[in-house]
Amino acid sequence: MAHEARLGWLLAFAFACVAPNFLSVSMRDVALYMLLYIVVAQSFRMITLTGDWSLGHVVTMGVGAYASALLVKKLGFSVWIAMPSAALVGALIAYILSFPLFRLKGNYFLIGSFAAGEAIRLTWFKYRDPFGGPTGILRIPAPELTVPGLGTLDFSDWSLFYYLALGFTVLCLWLMWRLERSRIGLTLNAIHWRDLLAESVGVDVRRYKTLAFVIASFFAAFAGAMFSHYLGSANPNQFGLAVMLYVLVWVIVGGTRTFAGPVIGTVLLTALSEILRVVGVDEYRPAIYGIILILTILFLPQGLESLPGRVRDWCARRKGVVPAA
Question: What's the 3-state SS for 253-315?
Answer without folding.
Answer: HHCCCCCCHHHHHHHHHHHHHHHHHHCCCHHHHHHHHHHHHHHHHHHCCCCHHHHHHHHHHHH
